[in-house]
Amino acid sequence: AAYPSLRRIMELYGWYILLFTLLAVFIYKKYVAPLIHSLAAEKELEERKKYDMDIRAHNEERIRAARARIQAQYEVDAAREVERQRRREEEALERAMREHGIGGNVASHRKNRGSESSKEDFDGKSFVTNKINSIPVVIFSKSWCAFSRKAKQALSIFRLPSEFYEIIELDEIENGDSIQDALLCISGVRTVPRVFIGGQCIGGADETVEALRSGRLNSLLLEAGVIK
Asked: Where do the TM regions start and end (predicted)?
């Protein structure tokens, strides 16, 4: 038997085909198209969030690196200034001794005295551990450091009693470098400031200021028993 012609098929089933086509178009526009659009929008939103997070992480890393460079430059400049000041003092003292007829090499004497003191047994890690375990709030700082000033300003708001709070200026004591080595061992970071509350390091200047803004600093001081 011959197959029916297209015309015959359309005569027999044309209305059914038309209705099915209209129904398919309706279902697509009503349900399928919005679902596809919604899925595409969600995917685009996820990709945008991921991109924003990557950009934010990259910027934060750049900021941290810039701060570390600034801190390192501060320390280098301060060390140079201390050395220049030491040399000026030695030269002035030598001139004064020559003017008064006093023999001897002052610089050599100071160097020998420094060498003798460096031979003294100083345990930086024990020093840091004893401090943070015996005093609730301790800041290891440097007097010229802008970041250290930020941390000290954040804590100054609480007007902590002196028996609960100590600031150790590493540039003003003899074994500052040894103490910084100990800070690296204990906290994982050698730079200052290092802020300890209740024996635990909460970070540096930025972390301390952020803890102040969020209220976490107040909670830590309450837990340490230094405020009520």
From this structure: 12-28
Identify the pLDDT of residue 143: 93
Quote the pTM value: 0.52
What distance in Å separates the CA atoms of residue 82 and residue 68, rounded to the nearest whole number? 21
Closest CA to 74 of 182, 205, 187, 208: 205
Q: Taking Cα atoms as reference points, which of 203, 193, 147 lies closest to residue 170?
A: 193
Per-residue pLDDT band at 78 (split at 50, 70, 90):
confident
Give the residue among 196, 158, 160 at the shortest CA–CA distance from 179: 196
Query: Higher model confidence: residue 228 or residue 212?
Result: 212
Q: Which CATH class is domain 121-224?
A: alpha beta
H/E stretch holding 141 reads strand 137-141
- Count the Cβ atoms, other than its own, within 10 Å of residue 61: 10
pLDDT band for position 150 (50/70/90)? very high
The gap from C-alpha 200 to its chain's centroid, in whole angstroms, comes to 16
For residue 208, which of 165, 147, 146, 167 has the smallest C-alpha distance? 147
Distance CA 203, CA 228 (A): 23
Cα gap 70→77, rounded to integer Å? 10
Which amino acid is located at 164 in the chain?
F
Q: Could you give the 3-state DSSP secondary structure of residue 118?
A: helix
What are the angstrom distances between the C-alpha of 67 and each of 74, 97, 126, 169, 213?
10, 45, 29, 20, 20
Kindly tell me the burial class for residue 136, based on how many C-beta atoms sit within 10 Å of its own C-beta (0-12, 13-18, 19 or more).
buried
